[in-house]
Specification:
single chain, 157 residues, alpha+beta, 4 helices
């Protein structure tokens, strides 16, 4: 299955939004941030279908990877690694890149550590609202550990 990984484009937005649960609004919010130059949403496509995404938040110092997600059926195929490679390429004008990973998500942490991210020892707990796969609004509390990586200089955003 050929994989294409690239930043969100105007022509992608409605196709991705149509796959979201009603009321979620994730891709619309990411598009608005990207239009303002505050963020970039990187999307992985397999045969024209979005199978994963990751947000590069440009409002933080250092830049931070947020909202990395790979569709459950597509996991274990290198999509997370491909998304992170593109995020790092886009972030290359910066010298460091951060990512928070849930303390209860060892699989994601293993991915980040395999890619060279190291724990800073900083933890944070956040409570947030989200819309689940059935369109139900829920509240979650998550504790993350902050990982950091020095990235080589590259092409600008």
């Amino acid at each position: 299955m050929p994989l294409e990984v690239r930043r969100l484009e105007a022509t992608d937005f409605e196709r991705i939004e149509a796959r979201e649960p009603a009321g979620q609004g994730f891709v619309r919010a990411m598009w608005r941030l990207q239009q303002r130059g505050a963020s970039v949403l990187v999307v992985a496509w397999s045969d024209g279908v979005p199978v994963g995404s990751a947000q590069l938040d440009l409002r933080t110092d250092p830049f931070e990877v947020k909202n990395l997600h790979v569709d459950e059926r597509a996991r274990g195929q290198g999509i997370g690694t491909a998304l992170m490679a593109e995020v790092e390429r886009l972030a290359a004008p910066a010298s460091r890149l951060a990512v928070g990973v849930g303390v209860d998500n060892p699989r994601a942490r293993a991915l980040y550590e395999r890619l060279g991210y190291r724990s800073t020892g900083q933890e944070s707990t956040t409570t947030y609202e989200y819309v689940d796969a059935h369109g139900v609004r829920r509240t979650a509390t998550e504790t993350d550990v902050l990982l950091m990586k020095d990235i080589p200089a590259g092409s600008p955003l």
